[in-house]
Each structure stands twice: as C-alpha cells, then as structure tokens.
Amino acid sequence: MPDAPTKFERVANWFDGLRKVLVAGGAGAVVVIAAAAIVRELAMGGLAIDPVVVKATNTPDAPTPELAAQQIARQLDRIQRSGVQEWRRLHVDDGVHPVDLQIPGAPLSLRSAAREVVALFGLAPVTLRSALTRRNDQGGYSAVMSLAGDHGAMANCPADGIEDTLDNIYECIAFNAIAFVDPKTAASYILKREQAECKGLDGGLAPAMPDLHREEHRINNRREHCSFAQTQKVIAKMMGSTDKSELRWVPYIFGQIHMARAEALVDVGLQQQLSELDQAIGRFHDSQRQMKHSPTTIAVLMKAFLRKGIIIHQTTPPMEWVDDADSLLQKRLTIADQTFAEAAEQLQQIPKTRSPGLDALVNRLEGLLIYRQWMIDAHRRMKSGVITVAVGKDELADLDRAAAKYAAAEAKDPASATDLMDWGNILRAAGKFDDAIVKYRRAFDLDPANADPALNIAVAYIERFERNSGSPDTGQLLVALGALDDYLAWTSSGGPYRALLPRVKRLLASVGHGQEFEECLSKTLAAPPFADPKIEKWKDAAAFKFCIDGAIDSVTRVGIRPAEVTNASR
Fold it and tell me: Which Pfam families does the protein's record reference (predicted)?
C-alpha cells in the first residue's frame, strides 16, 4: 500500500497545524485577557483597600480583615455621595473579587499581576493600608491609616472628640483617605456635618440682657458653632493642590459656608443674613466665572440670589402698606425686585450652547424668577403680602410662561422634588389647582420625609374651594379638610401652626362651622400636659386634628351653613 504513509503524514501534518493554531490562539487569548486586565486597572484608577490588619485576635467580636476593608469601602461610598453630582467619583476596590484567574501554586493572580504591571508606569490606583487595634474591654478601637507611596498621607483614628466605636473608626479612616486623594469631596462631606451644628446662635440669651452682653454671647456662639474649622482645614489642602480643577471649587465650598451661616442667622436679623448671602454670591460668582458650563455653580449662584430676594420680600407682608417711595416697605420691595432682575441678567450670560441638563436648569431658574417677580407685582397690586391668585391677562400670561419653562425643562431632565414644588406653586398662583396638586403629589413621592408637599396639597384644596365661583361645593370642602387631616396626622412637624390655623378658622367660619371648631380647640388644649415629652410634642397637632375630625363630621351631617363672624374672620 504505497499511499498509506502519505495519508499518515497528511493526518500528522493536520494535527500539527491544529496544535500550532490552538497554541497561537491560546497565546493570543492570554495576551488579550492580560491586556484587558491592564486596561481595566488603568481605567479604574481610584482607591484600592488592602485587607485591614486587625490586632485583636483573642476577641471573638473583632472584625475580619476582609470585613473591615468592606466597611471602610462602605464609608468611602457614603462620603462620596455628599459631593456634587458632576464630580467624578473614585472607584473603590475593597479587595473582594468573585472572579479572578490564578495558576495553582503561583504567587500572583491575573488581577494582581496586571496591577503590578500598571505600577511599573506609576499608574496604579492609590492603595489604602490600615491597622485596627482593640483599645479596651468596652469595645473601643484605634487605628492608623496610610496611603502607599505617600509618606505624608498618614493619620491616626479616632480624631479628637470622636468616640472610638468601630463605625466611627471606619469613618475616620475613610475620611482621611478621601481628604488626601479628593479634598473637595472631603470638604463637602465635613461641611454638611458641621452645618448640622451651626444653629442656636441666640441660645441662652435672656430677654433683659444688656446689648453688649448679648452681642458678646452671639460672637461666642458663632465661633463655637459656625466656625467650620474642620471644613476650612480641608479647604487649605485643596488650595495647596497643583490641580487647577481642584482650585476652581475652593470658592464654591466657601460660598456654601456663607449660605449655611445665613441659614443659622434667620432669627438674628435680616441685615446679618444679607451680609452672609452677599459674601456667598461673591464666592459663587468667582466659581461660576471659572466654570461657565457647570450646572452646580450656576444653580448655587442663582440659589443665593433667590434666597436674598426671598428673605427681603418675606419681611414686607407684616408691614402696613404705604405708597411713599422712601418708606422701608417700598425700599425693600424695590431691592427684592432688583435682586431677582440681577439674577435674570446673570442667566442671560450663560453660553447658549449647553447640554440638555444645563438647559433644563436654566429654564427652571428662568421660570422661578418670573414667579418670584410676579409675587412682588401682586403684592403691589393687592397692597398686601397675602399670597393671592393671578388676575388679568398679563399676570396669567407671565405665569403661563413660567409654567411652560418648567414643562420644557421636564422634557430634557426629570424634575426634582424641589422643582416640582416650585412648578406646583406657579400653577396654583395661576388658579390651576388640580394641576398644582399633581405636581405636589409627585414631589411628595420623591421626598416623603418632606412635609411641605403634603401641606401645599391641603392648601391647594382649600384655595380651590375658596376660589370656586359657583355655589359652595360640600364635596370640595370635605376633600380639603381631609387633606388637612392627613397632613396633620402623617407629615406635619407638630406645630405650632401660626399661619395655617388662622386660615382654617376663617375657612370654617365662612361655612358656618367656625365657632364649633374654636370651642373644640379651647377645650382640647385645656387638657393637662402629658407626662412623656415624646408624646407631648404632638399637642398642637393632636388638638388641631381632633377638631378637624369634628368639623368633617359636622359638615357631613349638616352641610355648609351661612357664614359666621368670628375673631378669625374680622
């Protein structure tokens, strides 16, 4: 069989070729996988957490090194959430990798080998190393942390004044790591922590205290509660950075400090609030000039302008109306109007070429400014600061234009709870109560912890009943009272209801049930206080709700009666 060797050689050659193809394919696959692993390490960057060294081996409740690393990663994630949405968040590698390739017996896995290769070029992620030590039998811990390759990036935990619980230790480690790697996020986080303490600036001041002593106490309280010392320490790190992208956010953080101080000064005086707001506006201007396309800097600048105009206007409703242009009332209305006009002018300077998200933000701000300027115009028309409904074609056209701005923005970027509240207020001012209630409900769905949407729903129902041009509708009245009852029971803060209660008294007096309601309130509030302070805090809400329930029963039984003349309606 002379051809047999030829066939054998062909088969052998075929298998040899197949072997070469498989070897080449395997080598190519290895190269591709290795290259992908290296590219992945380069793309992720961020912060890698080594397993924590835990020096508490004899303690049964001590965390494992892997668990401690995961808890630090959780704290890093929480801290980063406090930053601005447009900031790039660091990728955090907590060392838990469900899929990794490793040759049995080899010291390196594919992932660690890729990281070593990347490290040769100085591009490896920053590595967080830490050691945790049990301090005492009461569960106290201490820790030391460092960032590999940076001998200056070290810190001890807990910091002064911080409890030595495990959660606080994990937070301390995470915060110090972020402070070295991304100081602007660390500044934003600690600012929010310190902002919670910036309040009570008039605490402990006796009414008869001399003016000098009162001011001494206020200065001391400001230094103790609103110095933002930790935030400013982190800002100093930002200012020491050579990264210009970090430096551009320094004015923004300082502006947030001034905004927080203005909020704390609400009960101290208008002029002192305005001083802080003017400083915030200056800081935000600086930041916005450096980042013209930043939604965050535009939003906070407009927020500061709006806040300034709003608090000036809010001081005018209690004032008696006078036409004199030199009166305090007229001057404040003019300043508020000019503040909103200046804000509108700033919006016109934003580049016309912008992202859909930025365009939506600008539309909403323009709509809100139209609404706030309408409020001042309505105040002048009514010669009263009581919120009213637009009248005449011009006013309605302005509010329709404002609402259209919000509708256009919604098509490009979903509205937040705050946006929906503002949109609802515009619709309510235009007399579109049902549409406003839809927006308030959506706002409540997005932010159930906020009581304002539920309150505005109740007020919108009340106004719908009051503005009904036909005969009084018992069904609409019961819906309004039911919404109010729901607000008092589920979302209100517990009162006192200084603005809402007089309005409800007038409403019930207008339908012949005011006297019963007031008698119910007097009788209910006369009950002795409850021993438990936790329960007693609901005294105003409970009395209000109890008597609203009675009013609902009364209206259901006898319907709407002739209007009464009461103290609330005179």
Answer: TPR_11
**pLDDT averaged over every residue in the chain:** 83
- For residues 508 and 12, give the distance between their C-alpha atoms in angstroms, rounded to a whole number: 102
Mean pLDDT value of segment 118-135: 69
- Residues 86-114 pLDDT 10s: 888 877 776 654 444 444 544 455 555 55
Domain ranges of the chain: 17-179, 321-450, 465-570
pLDDT in tens, 400-410: 999 999 999 99
496 upstream amide cis, omega within 30 of 0: yes
Amino acid identity of residue 209, one-letter, is M
Tokens 């011009």 — which residue?
394
Instruction: Give me the helices (H) in 328-415, please.
Output: 328-348, 356-382, 392-410
Give one DSSP letter per residue of 48-101, joined into a string: EEPPPEEE-TT-TTPPPHHHHHHHHHHHHHHHHHTS-TTSPPPPEE-S--S---
Residue 397's pLDDT is what? 94
pLDDT higher at 96 or 303:
303
Distances (CA, A) of 11 to 4, 5, 14, 15, 68: 11, 10, 5, 6, 59
Q: Where are the beta strands (DSSP E) in 431-503?
A: none
The better pLDDT of the pair 99, 17 is held by: 17
Count of CB atoms situated within 10 Å of the CB of 256: 22
Q: 252 is written with which tokens?
A: 């923004």
Q: How far apart are CA 147 and CA 157, in angstroms?
A: 14
361 neighbors 295 (Cβ within 8 angstroms): yes
* Rg of the chain in Å (alpha carbons): 32
* φ, ψ dihedrals at 93, nearest 5°: -105, 110
What is the distance, to the nearest Å, from the Cα of residue 26 to the centroid of all Cα atoms in its chain? Answer: 52
Q: What is the DSSP string of 218-256?
A: HHHHHHHHS--HHHHHHHHHHHT-S-HHHHTTHHHHHHH
Q: What pTM was computed for the model?
A: 0.77
Are 85 and 296 contacting, i.e. CB atoms less than 8 angstroms apart? yes
3-state secondary structure of 133: strand
Q: What confidence score (pLDDT) does residue 569 get?
A: 42
- Other Cβ atoms closer than 10 A to 556: 11
Total residue count of the chain as it appears in this document: 570
Phi and psi, residue 479, nearest 5°: -65, -45
**Banded model confidence at residue 10, pLDDT cuts 50, 70, 90:** low
Contact 307, 277 (CB under 8 A): yes
What crossing angle do the helices spanning 65-81 and 183-195 adopt, rounded to 10°? 80
Where residue 127 falls among pLDDT bands split at 50, 70, 90?
Answer: confident
